[in-house]
């Protein structure tokens, strides 16, 4: 279990890019599927470049995983958006709750968002139940804040232009 926590404060949920929201839910569902199979999932990133999804797992301490995730996203040339998914917990009014957490952002946006899906464990540490919904946690640092925004359509046009140049 990760020692990382994201404070759950009362705040307004910002407008989340539709494609980013879809990616965040996708990575949480992937992690949930592994946990339901009794597997432990390593922290992982998913970066969208054009219409392709690139994933990478990360090992080490909490700080090493975050550094590795940031490097992986920044090294995905032309990344439009990303998600970083890990097992952690959310600090709630009822105490700490185990959760699958996904942080993600869009290239050029000042902030990323963190969302999570809480779950329950039994005395042996086995997952017994997942909440039905993904909840907003907070804004967080965006790995791609300094990256130039790349529209999906622009990248496709650039790819087509490059193919025409090669012909």
How would you portray this structure in words?
This protein is α+β, with helices and mostly antiparallel strands and 167 residues long. It contains 3 helices and 8 strands. It has helices at 18-36, 62-74, 152-166; strands spanning 5-7, 44-49, 52-57, 79-92, 95-106, 111-121, 127-130, 135-141. Strands 1, 2, 3, 4, 5, 6, 7 and 8 form an 8-stranded mixed sheet that branches. 30% of the residues are buried. Residues 1-10 and 155-167 have low confidence and may be disordered.
**Biggest sheet details:** 8 strands, mixed
Q: Helix content range of the residues, please?
A: 25-40%
The parts where pLDDT drops under 50 for at least 5 residues are 1-10, 155-167
Q: Helical element count?
A: 3
The helix/strand order is EHEEHEEEEEH
State the secondary-structure class: alpha+beta
- The rounded Rg comes to 17 Å
Into which percentage range does the β-strand content fall? Answer: 35-45%
Q: Please tell me what the overall shape is.
A: globular
- Taking the alpha carbons of the first and last residues, their distance comes to 52 Å
Number of strands: 8
- Mean pLDDT, nearest integer? 86
């Amino acid at each position: 279990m990760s020692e990382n926590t994201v404070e759950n404060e009362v705040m307004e949920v910002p407008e989340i890019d539709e494609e980013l929201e879809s990616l965040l839910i996708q990575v949480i569902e992937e992690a949930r599927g592994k946990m339901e199979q009794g597997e432990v999932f390593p922290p992982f990133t998913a970066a969208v470049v054009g219409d392709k999804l690139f994933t990478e797992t990360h090992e080490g301490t909490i700080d090493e995983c975050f550094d590795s995730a940031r490097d992986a996203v920044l090294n995905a040339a032309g990344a439009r958006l990303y998600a970083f998914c890990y097992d952690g917990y959310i600090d709630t009014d009822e105490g700490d709750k185990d959760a699958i957490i996904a942080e993600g952002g869009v290239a050029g946006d000042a902030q990323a968002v963190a969302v999570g899906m809480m779950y329950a464990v039994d005395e042996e540490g086995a997952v017994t139940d997942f909440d039905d919904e993904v909840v907003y946690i907070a804004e967080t640092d965006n790995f791609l804040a300094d990256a130039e925004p790349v529209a999906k359509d622009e990248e496709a046009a650039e790819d087509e232009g490059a193919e025409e140049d090669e012909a």
